[in-house]
Amino acid sequence: MTSAADQPTPPIRTDVLIVGAGPVGLFAAFEAGVLGLTCEIVDGLDKVGGQCIELYPDKPIYDIPAIPSCTARELVERLMAQCKPFNVPIHLEQRVESVEQRADGRWTVRTERGLAFDVAAILLAAGNGAFVPQKLALAEAVPLESRHVHYSVPRLADFADKHVVVAGGGDSALDWVLALRKVARHVTLVHRRNGFSAADSSVELMRRAVEAGEMDFVIGAIAGLTVEDDALKAITLRGLDGETQLEAEHLVALYGLVADLGPIAQWGLSIHGGRIDVDTSNYESSRPGIFAAGDIANYPNKQKLILSGFHEASLALRKAYSYAYPEKKRMHVHSSYDAKLAEKLGAVG
């Protein structure tokens, strides 16, 4: 895993640049290695895992083939282990800014921090683009971010034996408040109304937990924070009956995320609803040589599933091979019978 300094560097030459280090991007790196393609990954976040790690790292996932259940964190760890034999460089905190196709058909790709790539093809596996959490409009919240004010839940264990307030009314807020009630000393859900945009089953479970005294639910809007010794002590709520205060050591504000394709929207691609239109025979965009897989890809009957992204990336890379090696005709070989691949992956038997 690498991180480039904030200065221009000579272009890094590779076959494919994968934009996005989430599950689809990581599996794409493995598939590229299987096909004999070199690749590098860039991601605007400061860690691998993409939306999975940002939004629900410890939530169980049940629809990954042959894995009955695993958390998002475990899935990312397994994918990292799977692509490790190919030593794929991962450049974090590198948001792709511009692409330029040269006369020889290859692409020059540059990031906002000065990193440059010389590639035959580009695979966009950036989820729904860059996600920005909707933050509290309170000046006192800024210096507390990541310590006492959070816009995601890094690890449940970090909140053990603490007074925690979760703000929000969507699936993420309900899921996390239900999980936190099992580890926190006390947890309170705060929402501006008694209605929720979360799954009915989660709402019902939350209401039962309140009745059982496992947690509290308060209707109101966060109006202020009480800070002492650079730490959060309480939260001021504004409701129909005026203002009240809640004791709190941590505030988890889950008001949703704003998706933004960022500079990708200016690349001249066919885009609808914030997603990139692709040809489902190879998941190529309207610009030959640029592919999209995962949530960022748009086509009829699109299913936003991780396993769909795996399939999309696999077919995209097979077409990308023809751009990297136009003089070669790649013959399909099942991985079970590929002796060189087995040796590379350290297979036994």
Automatic annotation (TrEMBL):
Gene3D superfamilies, per the entry: FAD/NAD(P)-binding domain
What's the top EC group for this one?
A: oxidoreductase
User: Any idea of its EC number?
Assistant: 1.18.1.2
Q: Is the Disulfide bond keyword given for this protein? A: no
Q: What is this enzyme's catalytic activity, as reactions?
A: 2 reduced [2Fe-2S]-[ferredoxin] + NADP(+) + H(+) = 2 oxidized [2Fe-2S]-[ferredoxin] + NADPH
Q: Mind listing the GO molecular function terms for this protein? A: ferredoxin-NADP+ reductase activity; flavin adenine dinucleotide binding; NADP binding
Q: Identify which cofactors the protein needs according to its UniProt entry.
A: FAD
Give the cofactor note text: Binds 1 FAD per subunit.
Tell me the SUPFAM superfamilies matching this sequence: FAD/NAD(P)-binding domain (SSF51905)
Q: Which UniProt keywords apply?
A: FAD, Flavoprotein, NADP, Oxidoreductase
Domain (FAD/NAD(P)-binding): residue spans on this chain: 15-300
Where FAD is bound, by residue?
D43, Q51, Y56, V96, F131, D295, S336
Q: How does it assemble?
A: Homodimer.
The UniProt similarity line reads: Belongs to the ferredoxin--NADP reductase type 2 family.
Question: What is the name listed in the Swiss-Prot or TrEMBL entry for this protein?
Answer: Ferredoxin--NADP reductase
Q: Which organism is it from?
A: Paraburkholderia bryophila
